[in-house]
Amino acid sequence: MCVINHLPSPEGDCGERMVCMGTESYTGRINRKLSKKLRIVEVAAGREKADLVLKNAVYVNVFSNELCRGDIAVAEGLIVGMGTYSGTSEVDVSGKIVLPGFIDAHIHLESAMVSPQEFVRAVLPHGTTTVVTDPHEIANVMGADGIEYMLQATEDLPVDVRFMLPSCVPATPMDESGAVLDYRTIDSFYDHPRVQGLAEMMNYPGVIGADPMVIEKIVAAQAHHKKIDGHAPGLADADLNAYIAAGVYSDHECSDPADAIAKLERGQFIMIREGTAARNLEALLPLLTPQYADRCMFCCDDKHPSDLLEKGHIDYNVREAIRRGVELNRRRGKHIVTTAIEHAAVLETCKELERQGYEVTYLKPDRAGRVAPEQLAAALRPDTALVSTMLVNNETGAVLPVEAAARAMLEGGLCLEEYLGA
């Protein structure tokens, strides 16, 4: 089925944009999904070979917050099981740790000032595997054609690029822009498999004032079972209640803990932003505690090329949070284990943490510059909160084998929050 959308041009004429949605019937779609699901079950049960198996993995289990062991089976693009599996393709990952990639919860890819392909080349080495982008900037110039271009330009990239549709084009009624996007203009995009919802609702006065043309965009997104991101700096009390009651479920504009906590208390998720144009990580570090951390995520919003190249992407946000002393372990105390030959920046951080009341155990390597796994195991205590040991040193060779470190961590009962620096 093809749907023709009428897009008002700046001159007032109606252009046409055709969106082809395929000819698959409902029954055909159910049968296709059934076939896929049956194969997933067969592979997970071990009756069929997986497409890919990562053999002998030590992996981060994000559900139980621990390091686990086993084969990882992949079928139909999904992880279907951990245990003992065989596959059409098998990769031995002994001595490595398998973990999920980083996600940027909100970014405008245009702010990188390069094509999506070049952006991906920059962030993939930093561990980013998914970004959620709002093509607001290109839509302000090109309208729906800009959104279409971004969807096409991000196909088949090694980073999964998800989309939130621009909610405010133009940004305000006073702005001049290349198009005016009402809910009808963007509605067909919700059928795209990589479109997750409606992007930052910047027109919070329109939401609070119950402007029908603003609210209908939220209602349309909800009709497609999509989420609505927020943008409401400093909103409080009844105005904040109205904004959230309309269906806005997140915010990335918080610059102080009180603002963020007020939104968390009302059910919103908070995106802790550390990008080029705005840097709120330091101010919002108090949110990274057991009470609030599960409803927080990192984002950049805008990231210029120089920042990407010099500092990194979401990995920079994580490193900064650790450097600034975020308590990583939810159930332990203030004991840290590191090595006496760590990088200068790590040792400097440990000295600062000692001044803050932490106790640091410095493992001493042998003459070859190696730390025995038994040393690490013996150093772990019930109140150990952080482990930072070099697993590989380019100058001296292996300091502590990854697999041995993982075994010691497992036997010591340490969880996901323990950080193994490399």
Question: Would you mind describing this structure in some detail?
Answer:
- The protein is globular, with a radius of gyration of 24 Å.
- It is 31% helix and 26% strand.
- Strands 3, 4, 5, 6 and 7 form a five-stranded mixed β-sheet that branches.
- The chain is built from 15 helices and 20 strands.
- The N and C termini lie far apart (52 Å).
- Strand 4 (66-75) and strand 5 (78-83) form a beta hairpin.
Count of alpha/pi helices: 15
Structural class: alpha/beta
Q: Assess the beta-strand content as a share of residues.
A: 25-35%
Q: How many DSSP-defined strands?
A: 20
Unreliable segments (pLDDT under 50, ≥5 consecutive)?
1-21, 392-398, 415-422
Average pLDDT level: 85
The major pleated sheet works out as: 5 strands, mixed
Fraction of residues in helix: 25-40%
First-residue to last-residue Cα separation: 52 Å
Overall spatial form: globular
Radius of gyration: 24 Å
